[in-house]
Amino acid sequence: MKETPLSNCERRFLLRAIEEKKRLDGRQTYDYRNIRISFGTDYGCCIVELGKTRVLGQVSCELVSPKLNRATEGILFFNLELSQMAAPAFEPGRQSDLLVKLNRLMERCLRNSKCIDTESLCVVAGEKVWQIRVDLHLLNHDGNIIDAASIAAIVALCHFRRPDVSVQGDEVTLYTPEERDPVPLSIHHMPICVSFAFFQQGTYLLVDPNEREERVMDGLLVIAMNKHREICTIQSSGGIMLLKDQVLRCSKIAGVKVAEITELILKALENDQKVRKEGGKFGFAESIANQRITAFKMEKAPIDTSDVEEKAEEIIAEAEPPSEVVSTPVLWTPGTAQIGEGVENSWGDLEDSEKEDDEGGGDQAIILDGIKMDTGVEVSDIGSQGGPKHWKNGADAPIILSDSEEEEMIILEPDKNPKKIRTQTTSAKQEKAPSKKPVKRRKKKRAAN
Amino acid sequence: MAEPASVAAESLAGSRARAARTVLGQVVLPGEELLLPEQEDAEGPGGAVERPLSLNARACSRVRVVCGPGLRRCGDRLLVTKCGRLRHKEPGSGSGGGVYWVDSQQKRYVPVKGDHVIGIVTAKSGDIFKVDVGGSEPASLSYLSFEGATKRNRPNVQVGDLIYGQFVVANKDMEPEMVCIDSCGRANGMGVIGQDGLLFKVTLGLIRKLLAPDCEIIQEVGKLYPLEIVFGMNGRIWVKAKTIQQTLILANILEACEHMTSDQRKQIFSRLAES
Fold it and tell me: Which residues are reported to carry the modification N-acetylalanine (chain B)?
């Protein structure tokens, strides 16, 4: 299936929200989503949930002959797959670009950082070594696959136990799990990827972008670090220009985040170890709550609702009187009525005239200025609140429009669309004769001022 | 008399069809067969019941029952094709046995004729727009299907805009077609949806619940602050409020409404109202 396109209004909304430091799910700029790690019954199998993004990791091992140029080292093999259930856009042949990028990043993060001691995987030099294979499957895509995948890989590797092997002279004995307890892998450190999404050419940054944020981001910076603050891999994609201090700041943030995540991982591993030792039940089936419907459960989103009413009051105070949700139609002229606020006025600077207007319809004030030319006569005729007052109060009154080309047009803000004025002029042509007089009157007033 | 007999017969026979009336409000699974009311009497114990022949034409009175979503006609019975609860609506007036349907829950939308949906314009090719509605194919929308549109006066629609329209053609054999005018030629609220605001996706069941005539959620939300909402039957909701904060709160409330009981919801609304 084709990916659902991102509509213009979503993109605009997300960028505006990011400019106001607001995220869709109420997180702060540097917050991660909830990470949940659960283990399966076999050693080396785990599921990591980063918010709604889910990755399944499975580690397996096999005795093979080593590579020719590395006779004493074991072999590591990483594979990340984007399952079709993760997103409708993932099809068997389709997601090649993203897949290649993710796989390369995983390899660089785990293999090149030498987090696993490959020398310890050697059984008989030149003949038999262990091949460790890490398979990662993306089960659900809600943004930030890289972080979830790297956590799943390292957790699975730490959790895995390989069969014990003993070498006596020429004899190699491979023990089954029943004969001897399986042995954990020798892991030096735990590299974890932290993603930073950049918006508006590097002005705003977010940690752990979710799927919507990833769609509108300009670029992505991934830093793989371990808890000793050693950078294992760093990658910047999207072609954005980053300043040196931005990168340094990101690495500091990454250091903090990696420390937290590593703590979480160690705690999860410890818990699982304890449960297995005590003989309790473990595995995926146990991590699912029994006798409870969890399909209809949703985590609470920490949306800030504290100052909703304040902001609303500010808006209302500025546009007095407070507007009703359902407004009655305002009759401008026989045949033309208006309900609601209408689109935003683009004629001139209205805030000054609004503030000075102490009475009079708040919403209507905006529209009055907008169609003042058309309804110049009618305003004074109807005697609607504050109509003629505008002209007296507004020291910098908005554009005075004349419908006669002979009179000189005084444009207060020449950079605002001159085109608009033209179209308004043509529409006001019918009222040419009667409205001429009031225009002249007004102009005289201004001259006096 | 017929029901206990048929139930007993069912336990004997194993996979006997159940009477639709007895299963109302219960969960039914795909593959089940349901008997309509007048057939229950016919299917008595054993099947062969002797009835006095009557010369009156009234004897074979057939009631016209409408088969709604999730049900299919299979001979004289109803075959369930979706799992969910069985519902029934009495006919308002006149004859007819009412409507039977299955209340199921899903996220993937299948275009249905007459549904009002929110679509995203993906392409403009010649005279038609391709609009993504969440189905298997993009729907086609002609530029003349807007109010006041003529060959010279084209609507101002860009790629990436949101459109609220209804389907005129939607079956499994053809690509769906939608329009933004009703049969009188008026827009009636349809057309391009404004520039700001937030679009998000929910399940189809939640949309149906929110669009029910007596939905409390919308009334309560409306009391909080002024807002604009558009519901699309394809699971998409567009909201707009005065500030971004309010829009985000709205979006999260509506998404969470699905998982909240009405008590929890009232709690949250009262907390919002007083804060």
Answer: 2
Contacts of A89 in chain B (CB under 8 A): none
Q: What is the predicted ipTM? A: 0.81
Q: φ, ψ for residue B205 (rounded to 5)?
A: -65, -35
Q: Look at residues B192, B226, B253 and tell me which one is the last residue of a structural domain.
A: B192
Three-class DSSP category at A376: helix
Q: CA A186 → CA A161, A377, B13, distances in Å?
A: 10, 88, 63
Q: Which of B248, B265, B270 to mutate to test the interface with A (most CBs of A within 10 A)?
A: B248
B244 touches A: beta carbon within 8 Å:
yes
Confidence check: pLDDT of A24 > 50: yes
- Which residue do the tokens 């949940």 mark? A36
Residue B9 lies in a domain: no
Give the distance from residue B120's alpha carbon to the nearest chain A alpha carbon, in angstroms.
6
Per-residue pLDDT of B163-181, as tens digits, reads: 999 999 999 889 999 999 9
Minimum distance, in Å, between the CA of residue A21 and any CA atom of chain B: 10
A124-to-A71, A73, A116, A185 alpha-carbon distances in Å = 9, 10, 18, 17
Distance CA A295, CA A317 (A): 44
pLDDT tens across A111-160, in order? Answer: 889 999 999 999 988 888 999 999 999 999 998 999 999 999 999 999 99
Question: Is B202 contained in some domain?
Answer: yes
CATH assignment of the domain containing B258: 3.30.1370.10
B124 CB-side CA count, 13 A: 9
> Domain span at residue B83?
18-39+63-103
List, for residues A221-280, the tens digit of each pLDDT value: 999 999 999 999 999 998 788 889 999 999 999 999 999 999 999 999 999 999 888 887
The pTM of this model reads: 0.71
**Are B123 and B178 within one domain?**
yes
Pair (B177, B228) in one structural domain: no
The tokens for A135 are 């398979």
Contact A309 B275 (CB under 8 A): yes
CB contact under 8 Å between B243 and A10, yes or no, is no
B172 CB-near residues (< 8 Å, 6+ apart) = none
- Are B186 and B202 members of one domain? no
In angstroms, rounded to a whole number, what is the distance separating the alpha carbons of residues A363 and B105? 43
DSSP state of A331: E
How far is it, in rounded angstroms, from Cα A444 to Cα B168?
Answer: 60
Asked if residue B230 and residue B267 are part of one domain, the reply reads: yes
Residues near B125 by beta carbon (within 8 Å), at least 6 away in sequence: none
Whether residues B186 and B234 share a domain: the answer is no
Nearest Cα to Cα of residue B239 among B196, B186, B181: B196
CB contact under 8 A, B245 and A307: yes
Number of neighbours of residue A410 by Cβ within 10 angstroms: 12
Across the interface, whether the CB atoms of A303 and B249 are under 8 A apart is answered yes
Which domain-ending residue is among B192, B227, B251?
A: B192
Q: Are residues B204 and B225 in the same domain?
A: yes
The answer to whether residue B56 is domain-embedded is no
DSSP A185-234: --B----EEEEEEEETTTTEEEES--HHHHHH-SEEEEEEE-TT--EEEE
For the domain that residue B75 is a member of, what is the CATH number?
Answer: 2.40.50.100
Q: β-strands B236-241, B227-231: how paired? A: antiparallel
B269 reaches A (C-beta below 8 A): no
> Domain tally for chain B?
3
Q: Which of B244, B249, B272 sits opposite A17 (nearest CB)?
A: B244
User: Order of strands, edge to edge, in the sheet holding B71-74?
Assistant: B18-19, B33-35, B77-80, B71-74
Q: How far apart are the CA of A176 and the nearest CA of chain B, in angstroms?
A: 46
3-state secondary structure of A348: coil
- CATH number for the domain that contains residue B123: 2.40.50.140
Is residue B210 domain-shared with residue B183, that is, in the same domain?
A: no
